[in-house]
Amino acid sequence: MRASIILTLSLTVVSAVHDYAKRDCSHDNCLRAFIGSSVDAANFCATYTTTVLTESTVLKYPIKGVNRMLVPFSYTAHYFYFHFGISIKQHLIKLFSLQLNVLYSQIGPAVAACTAISLDGISVPTNSSINLASLKANSIVTFAGETTFAFTNSSTFNPMTFGGKNVTITSVPGAVIDGNGQAYWDGQGSNGGVPKPDHFIVVNKMTAGSVIENLHIRNWPTHLFSISSCSNLTMRNMLLDNSAGDAPNAISGGLPAAHNSDGFDVSTTDDSTIHDNTVYNQDDCVAITSGNNITVDNMYCSGGHGLSIGSVGGKSNNNVTNILVSKSIFSSLSKTDTLEFSNSIVVNSQNGARIKSNYNTTGFISNITYSNISLSGISIYGIDVQQDYLNGGPTGIPSNGVIIQNLLFQDITGTAVVGAEDYYILCGDGSCSNIVFGGVDITGGTVPSTCNYPPSGCPGL
């Protein structure tokens, strides 16, 4: 017969039916079966607390070698709830008298064995990361408290990695993930200076209905999310705040301290949605360099470079297709999938809607819709399509190796500032076709707009 013991912070033991004999921690069958050695068992005994939380945060570890035994517990050690058939009452009292937080080093075993993991107040040491790349299918990982990262003097590591099938990464209200960007920011971003991780969070092979949601992330060193080889992924309801990097610091030469701080960098990803996110940063709010059937909806983007396709060309995958298409306009399209930027606000940014391809490369950009986008405080281009990028910057000389076709800019309105261009289209010879504007009205830029395609010129001119 199974019984239950719940231990609270005061170490009150609530039991049912049985009285349990003493058993020393290092010889307890439960821990020995769970951990596998007395050395590891000793570490286990010294790293858990007993504050009771809700059962929704419980983790479940199967105990090998013990019949019908399951030990669910919160990975942050805030909740312990044992179902068992052996005598461990005195050991538990001894174990739970140690009021210590969970160690960072215990994340690995939890990922390997659990499908519900709570990470509370994790402090990541130098030269270390939070590796959630191989989560078990259907796992739920919940961040709580403040997650912090020590400085690592390297550009070859990823502070966080996510991956898995039908997994959810989320947080409780008030939780914050702080990337310690102030230790890295020097105004140069990934172009040099202090070594920095190229992306703060690498999202790879998250598939089958996976969700990243409800995260509050601040102060990432450079690019935030790298999203690659994913499908059926949703990223939603996040506050991504790098605004502390807007101001110069002592080593940024008068420039904003943070640089190259993209919000979402998407490649080789299909059938996915990014929606209802707020991004304060200093580079692209969203940048899609390859992928199919992606929707970006209801975004608030401030301080960066806008909602971008590209730059495309010169990479292993150079196709961006099906980002929402109105079939009533592009009636010749053979696919019903869509890739869309819609219902979003872009403020105090360099660009609003932007598509860029690299000079003298090949690729394919097709079936892209920007719709219902509100702009204000745009400092370079309201709508921008250009095919002249070389070494990360424009040259003014376009090439035609990347085909751009079937673009719809619908209901994009707002204002640019003095010194900006409302519209800028620079296509290579014969490489652009079927670019349509409808309900577009951007004003305020004082540099004359220039559009070498479509033949009718820029909207309103």
TrEMBL record:
What GO CC annotations are associated with the protein?
extracellular region
Q: What domain of life does the UniProt record list for this protein's source?
A: Eukaryota
Reactions that this protein is recorded to catalyse: (1,4-alpha-D-galacturonosyl)n+m + H2O = (1,4-alpha-D-galacturonosyl)n + (1,4-alpha-D-galacturonosyl)m
This chain's protein is named: endo-polygalacturonase
Tell me its family.
Belongs to the glycosyl hydrolase 28 family.
Q: What is its EC number?
A: 3.2.1.15
Molecular function (GO) terms for this protein are: polygalacturonase activity
What top-level class of enzyme does the UniProt entry assign?
Answer: hydrolase
Keywords, sorted A to Z: Cell wall biogenesis/degradation, Disulfide bond, Glycoprotein, Glycosidase, Hydrolase, Repeat, Secreted, Signal
- GO BP terms: cell wall organization; pectin catabolic process
Instruction: Please tell me where this protein is predominantly located.
Output: secreted
Compartments reported by the entry: Secreted
